[in-house]
Write a structure and sequence with these properties.
Layout: E1 6-10, H1 15-26, E2 30-35, H2 39-54, E3 59-63, H3 69-83, E4 91-96, H4 118-141, E5 150-156, H5 167-187, E6 193-199, H6 213-223, H7 232-243, H8 246-251, E7 261-264, H9 268-271
Parallel strand pairs: 1-2, 1-4, 2-3, 4-5, 5-6, 6-7
């Protein structure tokens, strides 16, 4: 096992990003984590970094806005110094798991001020969809995405379903899946796989902010063939298993599974 393997995770301090960081670290990856936490939640990011180091891996965590172009350039440079070089494997796994967007209705009835505004929509699409393209562009330009690299973007059934006040995020998820398809085509000649992951409804800090989240949890658990909600660990195990394919990564054959929306939801979307 190559002890120099690195994974870059956006949204590493909670939910799917946290679970993936820990699973990949357990599988031998050093972790570069990007997160945005206030003082009240910063301790959780520090705990995760500590657990990763406790496994004997390196953990470089940055508490910054991942959609900020200057901060992105600084972190890519850190990636280049840590994971780059002629004999280094680069970033073998890149996970985009940013869950920061506007949760407002398009039509707000009596109070038009409560409806989504252009700035709200632009911010949501930029953070939750377009930033995946910009990070990928910069990582590729820096020579950090070698053959066999896996790129994942977290989507949801919201890309094709409606829920009260979820419209801007739904639009972002649909755009994110479109970006995945385009990047998959353009990066296939370089042996780089790009896939979206459609996780089932999960009880995470981000999903709890969705209006009506408790009802959403109850409905999802009730109809899921597995009889429960999806857990972040369910998704993390699949990511880690795919990333563990040393022989495929070395041969660059991982790219043959690319451009997909991979459902990790226990069959929830089939019956929903």
């Amino acid at each position: 096992m190559d002890k120099r393997r690195w994974a870059l995770i956006l949204g590493a301090s909670s939910g799917f990003g946290e679970a993936a960081a820990l699973a990949l670290a357990a599988g031998g990856f050093n972790i570069i984590g990007v997160h945005l936490d206030r003082r009240s939640t910063l301790a959780n990011a520090e705990r995760i970094a500590g657990e990763i180091r406790g496994m004997g891996r390196e953990a470089l965590f940055f508490n910054v806005n991942a959609a900020d172009h200057e901060r992105r350039a600084e972190i890519v440079e850190t990636c280049r110094k840590s994971a780059g070089g002629d004999n280094a494997p680069g970033i073998r796994v890149f996970l985009h798991s940013l869950a920061f967007g506007t949760l407002k209705p398009y039509i707000a009835g009596d109070s038009a001020k409560s409806a989504v505004r252009p700035a709200d929509m632009d911010m949501t699409l930029d953070v939750m969809a377009h930033s995946f393209v910009y990070w990928t562009q910069d990582l590729f330009a820096a020579g950090l995405l070698a053959r066999g690299a896996w790129l994942f973007a977290m989507s949801s059934a919201g890309s094709h379903r409606a829920w009260p006040s979820y419209g801007p995020v739904s639009a972002a998820k649909a755009a994110l899946e479109a970006h995945v398809r385009q990047l998959a085509v353009e990066l296939a000649p370089h042996g780089i796989a790009v896939n979206a992951i459609q996780a089932g409804v999960a009880d995470t800090p981000a999903s709890r902010r969705i209006p009506g989240s408790e009802l959403m949890f109850d409905k999802a658990a009730g109809m899921n063939p597995g009889g429960r909600l999806t857990r972040p660990e369910d998704v993390a195990k699949i990511i880690a298993a795919l990333a563990a394919g040393e022989s495929q990564a070395a041969a660059g054959t991982a790219c043959w599974m690319t451009g997909n929306v991979i459902k990790i939801d226990g069959g929830e979307d089939i019956v929903g």
